[in-house]
Amino acid sequence: MEEKIKYELEFPIHASPSLIYQYISTPSGLSEWFADNVNSRGELFKFIWDGAEEQAKLLTKKSGERVKFRWLDDEDDPYYFEIRIQVDEITKDVSLMITDYAEEDEVEEAKMLWTNQISDLKQVLGSA
Hints:
Layout (H helix, E strand, L loop, with lengths): L3 E9 L4 H9 L1 H4 L6 E5 L2 E6 L2 E11 L3 E6 L9 E7 L6 E10 L3 H19 L3
Antiparallel strand pairs: 1-7, 2-3, 3-4, 4-5, 5-6, 6-7
InterPro entries: START-like_dom_sf, START_2
Organism: Mesoflavibacter zeaxanthinifaciens subsp. sabulilitoris
Protein name: START-like domain-containing protein
């Protein structure tokens, strides 16, 4: 299996961290912007896009701060994706930090996908 490359993205976002957290940590919130539909049973989340299903395990979540998932088809891999809310202590500016992995020839495409997803999230939050 090919080594995946870790990348991080930062998206300034104009919304309260507690509101953003609802959209990154709950099935109903995630289905507003991340996938067409999201269901969960405990720490297992099922993401549905255009009829295709992907399952992910919720690895960690810290209230008001971050969520980390691992796709189940990659269960043996060390790869995950994390969505973290970062607040600048001085300016109080809020950013969404994305950590994810992609194969070398797919990094730019993956970054574009996240950019589009976060754009959808900003619209849902009314911060576009």
